[in-house]
């Protein structure tokens, strides 16, 4: 499907942020993805005021303007054009809450941590759409999306012509990582503490468990895709590269930190009381786990792991 829009040919801009905003405004006037989804008319005055500015020490700045600056705007807007729009308007089936989450207005949150959490959610929704477009380019046929009322993030026919459902989990910087990095920037000194590599392994297992639970009602091949931001890759790198998911399959390690134990306790209280008892059986229900590295909206497969028994 060929998309004819200025957003698809926008080149990188090496200029001031105010100038980039002006270029963005020109593209937006004729781009339905930007005008109807990412920055609708009701949000444009606030976006125009806030987007060119960096926010205090966190350095937060508009994702859309950043994508235009680096010549990557097309990667964000392509799946919106492809899946969420019918001509000049959003599809009738586009879920209201999904559309709301794709508006870039996280900049209006009051604190750095609130902005960080909101933008992580924004990136999570983008990850589902970008993954769909990326899969389609590899020969998968998209049948339905959660964004359009589907029961799962992505429903597809695989290149092997099998019905499949995919849950996409975006892994960006966790709150503790963000706060440690922010303290380091503010103090201009390295902040101690680091991270426990076993926390990374346990966290991967938790996100896969969470996704697999969401796929439990699907009759067909089930996949979990972890889309991992390059900003947090170091937290998970050793567990992935050293194949810990094969060495310690479907079991949390007790070598993790107190921070992980606190996190797991909260999850057991809130939502998953039986997680430790059932995790092995749950994870065996998925066909494959795909580890996908994301860097500036460019996706690359790092590893495909078979868990289904």
Concise synopsis of the structure shown:
This protein has helices at 17-28, 32-38, 44-50, 63-69, 73-84, 96-101, 112-137, 175-187, 197-214, 233-241, 244-247, 258-270, 275-283, and strands spanning 85-86, 89-90, 141-145, 154-157, 163-171, 221-229, 288-295, 298-306.
Descriptive report:
With 309 residues, the chain is of the alpha/beta class. It has two domains: 1-140, no CATH class; 162-309, no CATH class. 46% of the residues lie in helices and 16% in strands. It has 13 helices and eight strands. The protein has helices at residues 17-28, 32-38, 44-50, 63-69, 73-84, 96-101, 112-137, 175-187, 197-214, 233-241, 244-247, 258-270, 275-283; strands at residues 85-86, 89-90, 141-145, 154-157, 163-171, 221-229, 288-295, 298-306. A six-stranded mixed sheet has the order 3-4-5-6-7-8, with helices on both faces. Strands 1-2 form a two-stranded antiparallel sheet. Helix 2 (32-38) packs across helix 5 and helix 5 packs across helix 7. The longest helix has 26 residues, at 112-137. It is globular. 33% of the residues are buried. The model has no long low-confidence stretch (mean pLDDT 90).
Features:
309 residues, two-stranded antiparallel ribbon, alpha/beta, 6-stranded mixed beta sheet, globular, 2 domains, single chain
Task: Walk across the major sheet and give the strand order.
Answer: 3-4-5-6-7-8
Structural class category: alpha/beta
Strand content: 15-25%
Instruction: Write the element-wise H/E pattern from the N-terminal end onward.
Output: HHHHHEEHHEEEHHEHHHHEE
Morphology: globular
Helical proportion, percent range? 40-55%
Low-confidence stretches: none
Q: Can you count the helices?
A: 13
**SS elements, strand count:** 8
